[in-house]
Structures are given as structure tokens and as C-alpha cells.
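F.,

This is the one I mentioned.
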């Protein structure tokens, strides 16, 4: 069994088509909103996110209007493809449409589809936040994985919300303040939240927390100022919150 899927998303942002293109079709641009470290070279998009290292073949590159890439099709039929359509508007704004499509095999495809859908909502919201508040700036990505939280995700999210000082059902605009050991206080606002993700924006960073498929809370941040290596501090913070 399995199921084909298509997940379209669209937004109008206050950035030029060229700025949007840089964000979706270059390694440093993708680093600044997607996940992990990315490279676009020799017709391939390469991503390194922990142990997850997918590669996609570029199928369309028409700057600044259209960029598309797709993963190889596995023996069981699995693949994921992304298409970005960019259309300039009046007064320097741009309409961006992202369509993720593919095929998920297996009897448990619905569980994977739910996680993928919620994750893609977060990634697109982050792209919009980046283009709205940080367009043209390059981020240093920070990716750290916490200890396994088993099946008790409701408790894990409650612990995280309590640490950040927000309610159980956060919404865009909620204020956030917390201080991981070894780092400066973080003051920001929630820019996106759903059942498996949370995004916080500050004047110089985007902080994201994701329900990892492997059973760990993931910190997947984007830092737009030179702040040194924050990875160890975030790893220790996740260990403190989720080791108990």
C-alpha cells in the first residue's frame, strides 16, 4: 500500500523575486530557513541534517521564476519533489508558491504523511518569516537532537512550553523569553506553531523546535549574527529538559 500526495502552500512576501530566488535556489539561502546545511551544485540539492543526508536532482531552474528538484525514486516507489513558483508583484512584493509532492509507501503512510505535512507547514512559515524579516542575510544553522522522549510527546511539549514561558496552545504573536545556560537571554515572539513544531523569531535569529521522527525533540535554529558555536549549549539544554 501507499499513497501519492501533493501539498501546496502560497504566500505574498515583501521581497523581490531575485531575493526569493536566492533563498530557494542557493546553498546559503536554503541554510537560512530550511534545515541543516545545504548545497546546490552540479544540478543537485544536497542537505545534511543530523544523520539525514538526502540528495535531490534539479529538474527545473528558470531564475527567478521557477525552481524544482526531486529525490530519486526508491524500489518501494518512495520519492519527494519540491517546486517553487515565483511571481513578482507591485511595490517590490512577490507571490511564492511551494508545492511538495511524492509517494509514501507502506501501511503506515498516514502517520508519516501527518508528520511530513506538519513539518512542511513549519518550513514554509519559516521561509516566509525569513523573507519578511531577514531577506538577504545569511544564517548559520544550528541543529541539535535531544534524548529520546519515548511516546510521551504531550509531556515533552508541556516541558518545552513551560521552559519558554508560553501557554499549552501557543499562537503567532505570543511573547517568549528564556535563557539557555551559556547563552544570552532570548526574547522573541512565536511566529508559527502546530501540533509537532514551534517557531520563535527574535531580531537576529529564528529558533525552531521539531518533533523528530526518531523520537527526540530537535532544535533547528538559524542565527543571523556571528555568535560562535552554539551547538554544545543547545545540546546541553535539550539534555537538561528531556533526560528526566
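My design for it:
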Amino acid at each position: 500500500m501507499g499513497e501519492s500526495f501533493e501539498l501546496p502552500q502560497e504566500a505574498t512576501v515583501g521581497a523581490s523575486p531575485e531575493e526569493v530566488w536566492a533563498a530557494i535556489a542557493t546553498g546559503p539561502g536554503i541554510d537560512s530557513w530550511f534545515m541543516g546545511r545545504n548545497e546546490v551544485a552540479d544540478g543537485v540539492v544536497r542537505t545534511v541534517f543530523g544523520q539525514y543526508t538526502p540528495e535531490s536532482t534539479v529538474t527545473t531552474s528558470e531564475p527567478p521564476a521557477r525552481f524544482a528538484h526531486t529525490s530519486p525514486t526508491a524500489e518501494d516507489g518512495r520519492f519527494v519533489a519540491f517546486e517553487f513558483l515565483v511571481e513578482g508583484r507591485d511595490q517590490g512584493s512577490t507571490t511564492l508558491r511551494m508545492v511538495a509532492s511524492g509517494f509514501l509507501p507502506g501501511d503506515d503512510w498516514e502517520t508519516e504523511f501527518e508528520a511530513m505535512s506538519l513539518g512542511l507547514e513549519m518550513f514554509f512559515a519559516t521561509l516566509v518569516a525569513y523573507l519578511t524579516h531577514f531577506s538577504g542575510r545569511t544564517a548559520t544553522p544550528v541543529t541539535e537532537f535531544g534524548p529520546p522522549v519515548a511516546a510521551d510527546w504531550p509531556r515533552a511539549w508541556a516541558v518545552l512550553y513551560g521552559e519558554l514561558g508560553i501557554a499549552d496552545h501557543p499562537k503567532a504573536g505570543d511573547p517568549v523569553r528564556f535563557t539557555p545556560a551559556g547563552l544570552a537571554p532570548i526574547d522573541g515572539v512565536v511566529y508559527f506553531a502546530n501540533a509537532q513544531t514551534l517557531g520563535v523569531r527574535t531580531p537576529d535569529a529564528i529558533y525552531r523546535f521539531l518533533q523528530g521522527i526518531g523520537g527526540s525533540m530537535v532544535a533547528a535554529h538559524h542565527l543571523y549574527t556571528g555568535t560562535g558555536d552554539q551547538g554544545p549549549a543547545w545540546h546541553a539544554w535539550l539534555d537538561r529538559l528531556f533526560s528526566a
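The chain has a mean pLDDT of 95.

Talk soon.
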